[in-house]
Amino acid sequence: MTATHETARSATAQRTRATPLELFFDLVYVFAFTQVTHLMADGASVESVLGGLAVLGVLWWSWASHAWLANQQVADRGPVRVGILIAIAIVLLLSIAIPEVYPAEGESLFGALLFSVGFVLLSLVYTAVNLVAARHDAALRRQVLRTMGVTIVPVSVALISGAFLGGTPQLVLWLAAVVVEGITIFATSQGGAWLLPSAAHYAERHGLVVILALGESIISIGLGASHSKLTPQVVLASLVAIVVALGMWWTYFGRIADTAEHRIHVLTGNRRTAVATIGTYLHFGIVAGVLLASLSMGGAIEHIGGGHPIAPFDWTVLGIGLALFLPATGAYARVSRA
């Protein structure tokens, strides 16, 4: 690594807070998360939940890759700033396509193709920005080419093929794309040149995305109540739901977040990168769990407001959400204390 690039990474490490541009980038995911929960709610079935998780997985890799990019490079300067601005526009397009990503037979494929092709374009832009930003670091350029070269082709084929096929084949291929991307990124990153200059920046960005997911739970509770006639039962249900949301907040921020940041901070080199990588993977379970719980709480309040018992779907989704959130937060705590 040259002195120039070492200086750039040191400057990044000294910045312990996300830039306004990064916060703006994260705000796009507020809309994206809302779209995902609506997608799952519209189907109210196992297939809709799996379909939503596939879409969320695609969005997650886009968020995580850019969060790590901004940790290694200064986000509001030069090519990285341009890349993130372009990414904001593309992620917005992905988000508005979400309601139509799973067309019924005979319906237009435009939404599914917009989402899949948009993600491929986002990946290519991310790769190009990484290569330009790493122009003084040959090892990092090789790492970018290794990881993205192995990842982009199979993921692109799976997403675009699924968009054309539709139905169950699309769901299977899109879930496979999320899994393949996770496996290839992890496998090609072991002992590689990815570094994490700032543990504080890492902790803040991951904490912010959890806050965004928890914000979706507040939106779901509020919408569920506003779509119902205000009764004591609706008020009580809303209070119970907010207690669940507060419990998730306390589990993460009250017991884990600071400890994890400190643990990652004291680590160095590839060991720090490895622990932080596992943390990023576990955060997908944390965020997915929060969004599923949000979906169930909003639906339950609407059923109660309509004078109906809570639907089995809402109970099931709540159970799945907590079954993802609790083990993922527990595993993150264990990794952070190891």
UniProtKB/TrEMBL annotation:
Chain segments annotated as transmembrane: 21-41, 53-70, 82-102, 108-132, 144-165, 171-196, 208-228, 234-253, 274-295, 315-335
Source organism superkingdom: Bacteria
UniProt entry keywords in alphabetical sequence: Membrane, Transmembrane, Transmembrane helix
Record protein name field: Low temperature requirement protein LtrA
The UniProt record lists the keyword Transmembrane: yes
Organism from which the protein derives: Conyzicola lurida
